[in-house]
Amino acid sequence: RVDGTMFTALHSYTPQVASFIRSMMQQLVGMTFLCMLCHFDDLEMFRDVLSSVTLATINSIDEQGLTVLMNVCLRKNQPKKIEYIEALLQAGADINITVPSTTDRPDAGWTALMLQVFALHQTDLFVGVPQIVNGSEFAVIMGLIKKYCPDEVVMRCLNTQDTKGNTLLMLASTVGSVGLVKYLLELGVDVTLKNRLGETALT
C-alpha cells in the first residue's frame, strides 16, 4: 500500500510524480504503490523504485487480491509489458503467489501465469503451435521465468492448482488453445493432476 517510505523513495526521483500519485489516489483505490507506477509508462522510474523497496512490497497483494506481477500480466495492451515483467522477476517477484481464496473473484487460486493465459485468450492470440512457440507473449514470459527462477519454482508454478483444483493445463484446454496445450506438455506439466470434479486436463 502507499505509505511514507514509498513516497519518500518516489519523491527522491521526482517530486512532481509523487504529487501526481497523491492526486490519483481516489481513482486508484486499493491498488498498491507499484501497480500505480505501471500507469505512468515510465520503465526507468519503475526500475529505480523497485531497487529501493523491499521484497515484501514487490509481492504485496492489493485490495483486489492481485500482486503487481498479476496486474501487469492481466493487461492486454500494457506498453513494454514484457520489460515490466522482466524487471519484476529480476527484482524477485514471486510467481507462485495466488489470488487469495478469501476473495469473491472467480479466479481465486490463480497465479500470474494463469492470469496471463486468460489475458491472451481475451485477445485471441491462441491460433496454433507456431505462434505459441515462435516468440508469442506467453512463450517470451516463460523464457523470462525460466531465466530468473529455479527449476523447482517454475514447475511448481506450472502445476499450481486453483481453489477448484484446476491447473494451467486445464485452463489452456478450457479456452481451446491446442497450441498452448502442446507447448505446456513440452514443458513437462503434470497431466495426472485432478480437479475437484475428478477430471484431468485430458478428460
Describe what you observe in this structure.
The protein has 203 residues and is an all-alpha fold. It contains 13 helices and no strands. The longest helix has 12 residues. The relative contact order is 0.10. About 6% of the residues have low confidence.
Helicity range of the residues? Answer: 40-55%
SSE-based structural type: mainly alpha
Major sheet summary line: none
Order of helices and strands: HHHHHHHHHHHHH
Annotate the secondary structure layout.
Layout: H1 4-13, H2 15-24, H3 33-38, H4 43-50, H5 55-58, H6 68-74, H7 81-90, H8 112-122, H9 129-133, H10 137-148, H11 151-158, H12 168-174, H13 178-187
Offer a concise description of the structure.
The protein is mainly alpha-helical and 203 residues long.
Features:
mainly alpha; 203 residues
